[in-house]
Structure formats: C-alpha cells, structure tokens
Write a structure and sequence with these properties.
By secondary structure, this protein is an alpha/beta fold. The protein is 44% helix and 15% strand.
C-alpha cells in the first residue's frame, strides 16, 4: 500500500489510512449503537470507519463517535448533496466519500476543506476526478466492476499521476489479500465486519472478532 499527497485529501489523513489499511463501512439505525460499535472495532484493531448517510441518525452517530472515540478516523459515505458536505464539515469528520464522481460535490468539499474521495469505475470517471484535482479515488463497486484486474488495466494510463484507490463493494476477508498487496491501494473498505444485522443485534464480540481477523491479515502482509 502506498500513500500519495494531493490537493483534495489531507496528507495526514492519507498517511493514517495507509497505516490502518482498512475502513469498516457502517449503517447505523440507532444512535445508541454508535459508541459501542466504534469501541468494538477499536478493540479489534480497526480504527477507520465510513459511516454511510443512509439512515436518519447517521450524522448524529458520526458526531458522537467523533467526540467520544477520538482514536478512530471518522469518514462519511454516500455523500450526495451539498448539504451533506456542509454537515460533514460542521462536525469535522476526517474524510468523506461518494459512490460517484459529481464535480459539484467535489468542488463543495474543496470549498469546505473536507478530504473527499469521489467514486470511480471507468476511465471517464478517473478523468473527471483528475479535472477536479482529486488523486485519492473510491473504486466502487469494486468486485462487480471487475475487481483488481479491472482496476489495474483501467488505472495503467494514469500511473504516472500518483493515484491511490480505496476499493469498496464486494470486498471481504476472503478476497482482500490481492488488494492489500497492491501498491495502488490506500486502504480497502467493506461492510463484512459490521453487517447491519450484527449492529442491530449489538453483537459487539462478533464485530471485534471480524476486526481482529482483518487486522491480523494486514499485519501479516505488511509484516
């Protein structure tokens, strides 16, 4: 894994994501689950999250984790509107990502100084992101788009520009190794550690166990 400095993403956050290697993707339905969930991940060695803006409590959950669990990197996902960018900036999350590449949202994130990775799945997406000054890109949906093989082919013409990718979508403990070994990858992301039913059942032991599995795998690879 390799960290790259660029304008639309804080170098400090890049380095932290590079060091952790994995981002847990969360969907939180109940605010009271936010803090114990974050602590369960920290206990398992995972200290970066992407909290998706798909539920009414998502912003408040991110705010609570940011305030009460300072050792975890808090990112917001599914950032689709300017109001969501504003809300992310107001609660001072560490970064934000989107499933697609919307120049208007990228510009708004830059205006607020919010580290932001747009989503890409094609060369056209990459060039749109480059036009906006982005070098950290979310590769989504990774597995159904062709996985690492597709990313390697797609990114080859842009290799000299120092791009780094955060692949999400279909990644889990069984297929993460090739991604983690790739110099193109900043960190992998996935919801397998924190599946929604596990959160709803408050099964923190299972989440900690899942986090430990990926942390041990990353430690073996980075050795």
């Amino acid at each position: 894994m390799q960290a790259v400095e660029q304008k639309s993403f804080s170098p400090q956050i890049i380095n932290k994501l590079n060091d952790t290697g994995v981002i847990a993707v969360l969907v939180i339905d109940e605010l009271q689950k936010a803090i114990p969930l974050a602590k369960a991940l920290i206990k398992g060695g995972v200290n970066a999250i992407e909290l998706t803006l798909r539920t009414p409590v998502a912003i408040e959950a991110a705010r609570a984790i940011k305030q009460e669990v300072p050792d975890i990197l808090v990112g917001l996902g599914t950032v689709l509107t300017e109001d969501q960018v504003k809300a992310a900036s107001k609660i001072e999350v560490d970064f934000a990502v989107a499933p697609g590449c919307n120049p208007r949202i990228i510009k708004k994130a830059q205006d607020y100084g919010l580290s932001f990775a747009p989503g890409i799945a094609t060369p056209t997406d990459i060039e749109m992101a480059l036009e906006q000054g982005c070098r950290i890109l979310k590769y989504f949906p990774a597995e159904t788009s062709g996985g690492l093989k597709h990313l390697d082919s797609m990114a080859a013409p842009y290799q000299h520009l120092g791009l780094s990718f955060i692949p999400l979508g279909g990644i889990n403990i069984s297929n993460a190794i090739p991604y983690l070994k790739s110099s193109k990858i900043l960190a992998v992301g996935g919801s397998w550690m924190t599946k929604r039913p596990l959160i709803q059942a408050a099964d923190w032991k299972a989440i900690t166990k899942n986090a430990k599995e990926i942390r041990n795998l990353i430690d073996q690879i980075t050795g």
